[in-house]
Design goal:
The chain is mostly helical and about 325 residues long. Helices cover about 80% and strands about 0% of the residues. A hairpin with a 4-residue loop joins β1 and β2.
Length: about 325
């Protein structure tokens, strides 16, 4: 098992390396940079002449190393990550990018993991019930809801939730991580409940998509397994239906779902990303979105790298879990 885990980790290193190259290059492909945005801002809002704004722009490029070639900027960025654990300097927030990640990454992971747990538990249970009650009213209703939960965009659900809470439910304090009165207060049960009241739409919307996907995968897998010959043999031997399903059919139907879990956690983060932007929840999502608009390359590239690391870790964990459920994976 340790050799199996070691191989998966070693395979992940070159993948992450190539992801850093691609992500940094993609961010730099867009025309202009932070200095050019700053130049446009000074000319539009400060009425600064173009020649003076250009001089300030050149100073900013030299100060932040934006005058270096692409390879030089990438080398400096990677050197800081490997040797110092720093993801660069944020031009917009005037602080190290690592400080921003320390503040916002735990919030993102908490929301994503809660949504992931809800999606996994309810998706599997609904899939089992629907597969064992095929073509019933519950099965048809759950299938329609799962289809809608899969195809509806997260930002649309976020906007709809925002509208419903504001105009139908009369909720005034929407968005953010907590209420104003709890911002500087230490952590307490009242503050935890206040945080939950602010972030539950993000968890619900991200979890809805995960429930829909897990439900469809589990239902399809279990229907295939229930038509297998060994299940028919178990029933012919007189085993109780519940034992046939839970002991023989469900464990085998879980294999593809476990492999799929490596992609679900990033999907939860994606759902959290879209909804958090709409509802202004201070996680990595608004940080990434604002960095793209402001050409804050180190924040944007760092966010892409964090998402890639989560994707790789999710795949490694799903491989390990699959190896525990089915030891044949290790020998193969």
């Amino acid at each position: 098992m340790l050799k199996f885990i070691g191989k998966r980790i070693l395979y992940a290193i070159p993948v992450l390396f190539f992801i850093t190259i691609i992500s940094f290059s993609i961010i730099k492909l867009s025309p202009g940079d932070y200095a050019s945005n700053f130049k446009a801002f000074m000319m539009s809002f400060a009425n600064m002449p173009e020649n003076e704004a250009e001089q300030v722009t050149q100073i900013i490029r030299k100060q932040y190393g934006l005058d270096k070639p692409l390879l030089g900027q990438y080398y400096s960025w990677m050197k800081g990550i490997i040797t110092e654990g720093k993801f660069g300097y944020s031009f917009t927030y005037r602080k190290d990018v690592s400080e921003l990640f320390v503040e916002r990454l735990p919030r993102t992971l908490i929301l994503a993991l809660i949504a992931h747990a809800i999606a996994t538990i309810f998706g599997i249970l609904l899939g089992i019930y629907s597969a064992t009650h095929q073509y019933s009213l519950t099965d048809n209703t759950a299938t329609v809801i799962a289809f809608l939960g899969t195809c509806l965009p997260r930002f649309f659900l976020g906007l709809f939730t925002l509208y419903a809470l504001l105009f139908w439910a009369g909720v005034k304090d929407i968005g953010g991580w907590t209420s104003v009165r709890f911002v500087f207060m230490p952590m307490s049960w009242a503050r935890v409940m206040d945080i939950a009241a602010h972030v539950w739409p993000v968890i619900a919307i991200a979890g809805l998509g995960g429930i829909s996907r897990n439900f469809r995968v589990m239902r399809g897998n279990l229907l295939d397994v229930l038509s297998s010959q060994y299940v028919t043999t178990a029933r012919a031997k007189g085993l109780p239906e519940g034992r046939v399903i839970m002991k023989h059919a469900v464990p085998n139907a879980l294999h593809p779902l476990i492999m799929y879990q490596g992609m679900v956690l990033p999907y939860m983060i994606q759902g959290e990303l879209e909804t958090a932007i709409v509802l202004s929840v201070p996680t990595l999502a608004p940080l990434f979105y604002n960095a793209l608009n402001a050409k804050d390359i180190y924040v944007a590239s760092g966010c892409l790298l964090i998402y890639a690391i989560v994707l790789v870790i999710g795949n490694i964990l799903s491989d390990i879990l699959l190896a525990i459920v089915d030891p044949r994976v290790v020998t193969e």
